[in-house]
Each structure stands twice: as structure tokens, then as C-alpha cells.
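Revision sheet: C-alpha cells.
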Amino acid sequence: MFSKSIIVTKVKKGIDMENKKVEVCANCSGFDVKELKNVEKAKIGCIGKCSKKCPELNGKIYGFLNGEFTVCDTKEEFFYKIKELSSYVETSNMNPLVDAFLELTKMWVDEFKLLRKIVLDCGLIEELKWGQPCYTYDGGNVLILGGFKEYIALSFFKGALLKDSENILVQQTENVQASRQLRFIGTDKIKHLETTIKAYILEAVQIEKAGLKVPVEKKQELEIPEELQIKFDESTIFKEAFYALTPGRQRGYLFHFNGAKQSKTREARIEKFMLKILEGKGLDD
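Predicted:
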């Protein structure tokens, strides 16, 4: 059985700066996060809260400081609070970024909470990646939770290597080679399969521990349309967000963009989905 907690050794204040925990969003924290490079090592990515979903955050400076969501009126106040942070001691594998995600999500709330508990019972580390609760072991991605219109999915990154003795894993499309999903439309099925779900998770952890990789057939590289390259050149943040997407999501967008015959149509399609890409979402999410 894997440990249910992560203990970070506490050090004297001001000696080990790496043990402070600063998490902000590159797009909506209210300031240029590049300035953090001269102040503190920080995790920069989706934090589950933004001014687009919380209007009261407009004009504010905000992020998670040592796991606590902190809102300031000025950048100077926010940076002062970072400076005054004590070393961070983490005693739980529950991530406050996922708490924020669950506060704002409107679909599959009960299912998210139940699956979260089941996953954490298996001792995985909880993070927020690509805007969704993601669970890792020793730095390797094991599974991710995602809500869709018709179901909520627990997706194993290396699901193709699972034995699937119950024959319940779903391959999203024929183009998906490694990932496999467990899909649910209510809490009853999750409760009924809890023991099985945990068994699949622990098998996935063993696969990660062993360093196994899914044999992947090399696919033909899709062309980056000129209109998309222009957007990349205009915004490094947008370019990084696109390449942070899973390969399947990247291909989905490229198929859609390249499917337009006229340049104006391609440009319109790209602009339509820029926000989704910045939020780490796929074409159909």
C-alpha cells in the first residue's frame, strides 16, 4: 500500500526558498508572472480560479501561496506576502488547486468528489494539469479526471497496458493509442466498482514504477497552418499552451484548422478556439 501523505521536511525560514509554494496562472493572475523569476520559484499554470469565472477578482492580484488562495489589491502587496512566507510543510496529498476546481465546476460534482477520494486512497499525488485533476506517481502521470457532456471519465495515461480483466476500459477513438477510460454517468456505478477501480489504479501505478511504455505507431506529422504559426509568433503563451495539450488534442485541433480551404476560415477557427487552448481543453471538451 502506498503512503497517503507527503511530508516535506521543514527548514528554517529564509534558508530554503524552494520549500515555499507559489502557484499562479500565466494568463489571469493580474500581473506579468515572468517577474516571479527574480523573486521566487513558482508553479505557473491553471490554478482553477480566474477573473472570467469570478468577476470579483477583476483588477486584483491573486494566486495560491502555501496552498492558501490569496487576493491582493497590488502586485507589491502580493510579492511582499511571498517574501514573508515561511517554508511550506505539506501533510496531505489533497491539492488546493483541485479544491478550487471543484468549487467552480458545475457538472459531475458528486462524481468528481467520489472519484477523487478513491484515487487519493491509492496514495497518488494530486495536481491540476490541463485544467483537470491529474494524479501522478514519482513525477509520472498515471491518470486524469475529466468531465464531458455525456459522462465523466477516469483516464489512464498508459491504459493500453492494463489487463482490463473486467473488460470495462474504453478507447476514446481509434487514433488514441495509449490512453484508456473508465466512464461513469452517476455515483451508483462508481460505488459499485470502487474495489475494481482501485485495483486498476494500483496496477497502473505498478506500470509507472516499472517504467513501462506503450508501443506507439509513428503517425504522420500534421502541418501547422500558416495562420496558426502567426498566432504562435504573436503570443508565446498561446504557443506554449498549444504544445502543452495532449498529442491527441493537438491533432484534433490541427485536423479542424487544416480542414478549412480558405485562409480566412482557418483564421476564424483558430480565434474561436484560442481560449479553449489557453485553458488546456480539447476541441470537444
